[in-house]
What we know:
The protein is an alpha/beta fold. The protein folds into three domains: 5-120, CBS-domain (Roll); 232-389, Heat Shock Protein 90, CATH 3.30.565; 413-540, Rossmann fold. The strands form four sheets. Strands 7, 8, 9, 10, 11, 12 and 13 form a seven-stranded mixed beta sheet that branches. Strand 16, helix 14 and strand 17 (489-493) form a beta-alpha-beta unit. Residues 394-409 have low confidence and may be disordered. The longest helix has 66 residues, at 122-187. It is built from 16 helices and 18 strands. 46% of the residues lie in helices and 20% in strands.
Amino acid sequence: MSRLVRDVLVEAPTVAPTARGEDVYELFSHDDDLLVVAVVDNRHPVGLVTRDQFFLRMADRHGRALFSKRPITFLMNKEPLIVEASTPVEALNARIVRDRPSALMEGFVAVRQGEFVGVGTSLELFTAMARESEERNHKLSALAEQLGRARIEALAASKAKSDFLATMSHEIRTPLNGVLGIAQLLTATDLDEEQTEFVRVIDDSGQILLRLLNDILDLSKIEAGKMDLDIHPFNPKQLAQDAQTLWQGRAREKGITFTIEVSGAEGREFKGDPVRLKQILFNLIGNAIKFTDQGMVDVSMVFHDIGRKRSVMRIEVRDSGCGIPLSAQERMFTAFTQADAETTRRHGGSGLGLAICKRLVDLMGGTIGFRSVENEGSTFWFEVPLKVYFGEQTAGSTEDIAHEEETAVTTTRVLVAEDNPVNQAVAKGFLKLKGLTADYVENGKLALEAVQARSYDLILMDMEMPVMDGIAATQAIRALTSEAATIPIIALTANALSGAAERCIAAGMSSHVSKPVERDALFSAIDAALAMDRRENRKVA
Length: 541
């Protein structure tokens, strides 16, 4: 707590204005530590006598004779610095430095409502400031120690949260992979109309759970600073077409029109993160369709050049839906927030989508916003800067073998390392649709033994398995001296939080597919791995 003037006063005698110089001389002579004497008239200060100035006057050639018998008013400082006793010491110091530097030598007088309280000296001021500085340093040291402990605890809590989310992600995704995988397999069988509807409900419900899980993981990764953008060329026309394909059916079900227009991007590609851009766009379109019961949802994607090599992409999603109440508009981009409880009951959702959109846009160096009138509709928009892509310069020519032969053939030998029986069944069903058969093992150790006993063209490797996990098994296979060391390995991972993809690639895996496994994603990964393997074999040959 900051000290006040009354806390730094010194014990000093007071004299009346009629006191003689020799009276004050006696006071100073009998007390070597006395530095100042106050002159007080009827409880009001009228002057101040400092030791140094007094003896300088008295030691003058005729000083003793001149001042001994005269009133002290001839020797005192008639205009001393006078301050209220309740003034903070820091304020007094600032006033002395600013207005009265001489007070550092002469001292000051303290009053309370004009009446004398005491006197202070520069020595006492310096002592008080030093003591306060020392106390402040102690407090700062204690605070630094406390903040250090708090930081360690926060890091530990953050790691615990990340570990918990990673574990829960794996534990939830594993059974969810079974639910969605079997649902996808059932759609490829002969079902009657009622059964088809049952499967659709299963798949829709599973997709809702998956979106919620992904939203929570995305938000956690962004908050932890672990969200990285994957920048590469993309075609905005393809982005618009993907959105049209995905959402047209849902809009048709609700009886509303849905259109997407692209302008300013004719014949050009841009460099950005198409996956995250699609995530933002799909979230805004999904919300617009969800909250629109009649009318339209229109999307415009416009590119404004800001130089030859850069452009700004502005996307607007307009709807004629229920709009947003004015009371809810300020918190639309806050996590776990929706307009009201009725919105949650009618339309569902976690309230994470817009918060994630904003943070992704911020990560891209862009801006996001909206305008809305209740019962009239809303327009959500975002802008992000992009580089114009002019293509890569390559030396020489390469042989295009993309369509030379089919990648999935019946002679391809596949090994699946997966400990969960349901996930084994899902993998078996997908591979059957692909025209492939496989051998199955329950852990990485058995996978390592299998590739040494038999020749395989491809391995699907789960990351989390007993005895030996997928990472350790991959590293062990890559360390072999036989041809088995070069087998393409695709990771099947339910861990979407802790840099699982990076760890897979670092261990020597060819690619990874997240659980719940989507059929098209798995087939694409298989085709790419086998095509790459054939190209490498041709180079060796």
